[in-house]
Amino acid sequence: MNREPLLEVEDLTVCFDTDEGTVEVTDKVSFEIFPGEIFGLVGESGCGKTVTALALLKLLPKPGSRIISGRSFFDGKDILSLSSEELRHVRGKDISMIFQEPAAALNPLLTVRSQLMECFEYHESHGNKEEMVLDLLHRVGFPDPERNVSSFPHELSGGMLQRVMIAMALLMQPTLIIADEPTTALDVTVQAQILELLVEMQREMGTSILLITHNLSLIAQYANRLAVMYAGRIVEKSDLESFLSNCLHPYTHGLLEALPDLRAERPELHPIQGQVPQPKDYEEGCRFRERCKYAFERCIEKPDLFVHGDGQEVACFLHDKEAQ
Amino acid sequence: MNLLETKRLNAFFPVRGGILHKVTAYVKAVNDVTLKVGEGEIVSIVGESGCGKSTLGLSALGLVPVTSGEVFLANNPIDTRRPGSWKPFRKDFQIIFQDPFTSLNPRHTVYRILSEPLLVHKVFTKKTVKDGIANLLEQVGLSPDYMQRFPHAFSGGQRQRLAIARSIGIRPKLIVCDEVVSAVDVSVQAQIIQLLMDLRKEMGLALLFITHDLSLVKAISDRVYVMYLGKILESEPTQDLFKNPQHPYTEALLNSIPTLDRSRRPQILKGEVPSPVNLPTGCIFRGRCSYAQERCGERHPDLLRRNNGLVACYFPF
Fold this sequence. Notes:
- The structure holds two protein chains of two kinds.
- By secondary structure, chain A is α/β, with parallel strands linked by helices.
- Chain A has two domains: 7-230, 3-Layer(aba) Sandwich (Rossmann fold), CATH 3.40.50.300; 250-324, no CATH class.
- Chain A contains eleven helices and twelve strands.
- An eight-stranded mixed β-sheet of chain A has the order 6-7-8-3-9-10-12-11, sandwiched between helices.
- In chain A, strand 7, helix 8 (188-205) and strand 8 (208-213) form a beta-alpha-beta unit.
- In chain A, helix 5 (129-139) packs across helix 7.
- The radius of gyration of chain A is 21 Å and the shape is globular.
- By secondary structure, chain B is α/β, with parallel strands linked by helices.
- Chain B has a domain at 2-221: Rossmann fold.
- Chain B has helices spanning 53-60, 110-120, 129-139, 156-168, 186-203, 214-220, 238-243, 248-256, and strands at residues 2-17, 22-38, 42-46, 68-73, 76-78, 93-96, 174-178, 206-211, 223-228, 231-237, 304-306, 309-311.
- In chain B, the strands form two sheets. In chain B, strands 6-7-8-3-9-10-12-11 form an eight-stranded mixed β-sheet, sandwiched between helices. A four-stranded antiparallel β-sheet of chain B has the order 2-1-4-5.
- In chain B, a hairpin with a 2-residue loop joins strand 11 (304-306) and strand 12 (309-311).
- In chain B, helix 4 (156-168) runs parallel beside helix 5 (186-203).
- At the A-B interface, helix 8, helix 9 and helix 11 of A face helix 4, helix 5, helix 6 and helix 8 of B.
């Protein structure tokens, strides 16, 4: 691919201070997102996917967390070195975020209108603001925007609140939207509505989306490329076609096997044995070793991302061509 | 024999309003539900959040008040107005809750959590209970060394194992599993389900499996009830339900599940679940149904036998 990436995250390492000392929750996470694509970041809870998203916008809670190393280049600027004043122009305008729990992300004391209009206080825009808000609410599926803008969050359902979040994220026509588990709190039927909406808006406006989720099926349906995270590290990076036809890392295999296959008459479940390690127990070597049925001596070393075929990268010694 | 049976069960919650705090309406969480679970059978209840599936499980076990209707446990009629009437059956009917972070007392050790039901139901005496707990822990795949630990030392998957251990210790005949895997990770979810399946084989357990995840339903259950706004819309053997859904809502639910297969895009069911306070007139699914016709506005269709199951629709597939 010769295109210039829109966002380039390089060696991002984040540390949390805990009672048991400092723990590294992500370890040299690198990936890039190209203009107009949907990039999926998959992993189980606690693997560091949300931390990565927050870190690249400098939204991590302080004190308590630190970014030890890494850069996040957006549009030629390193976001992590920007001052808070400069960041304010990027957040919400160039990069916007959709959070997991819409009910917690919206202010319960303000109406939908005032929360959406707030964007205009920080970012310049042309045209009639009220009209833009109403138009956008209509496009995200509010049947009666004139009435709905005066609603408070408690008057709306989870699906409707997430639509408000999407409208808010789209208001400034950002070039990148970070969607952190946008549908986890919603029902399957509403999940399909919300994601279709997001994809439709993405196509219309040419926005890129970083889609963070634990649901591989969603990635398979909507993403162009993806990265799989496990215990703070990216273990596999691939474009979707090669991933679905031939995923490489034993963990990814395990994840796919653990999903019930609806096409089967009587789907079988194949669990991955063992537990996800806690960040304080993270080892230097391959962190999936304990649960991996292919583990061998070399796995106590740290595997780097090996390039496999074209476009696929995997952090597993099974795929180290040079050694074999 | 039917282990658990409800007949025209209703569980309504009053909504109060106005200055005088009068009852202005009812939330019809469970509305006229007839349900059966046989011995050793795995029956699933599926539906979107707020459809009343959890309330149904809870009210059948007397954990939320029943407004009207009948409940039978192992063919014995229960006096639903008296909470005590469930008590003689508690030993045979257990429940595992959704969130293992709130269902285990954080100030009790594993020993205390697991010993309580064993001692109350006199399965073990104080002297022998320790062996019983060690066995239970092993049975659910945890080390007996964990006995003196507190719940905070365990991960979500391990806690759910503890909750399972607590409920199987007294050898129940039926366990109501209320969204038991929705709070755990995908890789652990399969472990928990596998454990339940193994225990079922071993002990001949019946399960009433309450979930919103249709793909799990297909993997484990014998029969399925599809619930919407407090009512059962369809009930079928699992295979039939997935092959030939008869109700438009079931079809829509099946079509909205995302799969790894990219050629099969999730289809969109328009609209949202209406409020259970003001139920729509006519068929309750009418507003979202793409097949709705004039007749659907008359009244909600009865749940009638058709093919191998029951369906509440004037125009079933």
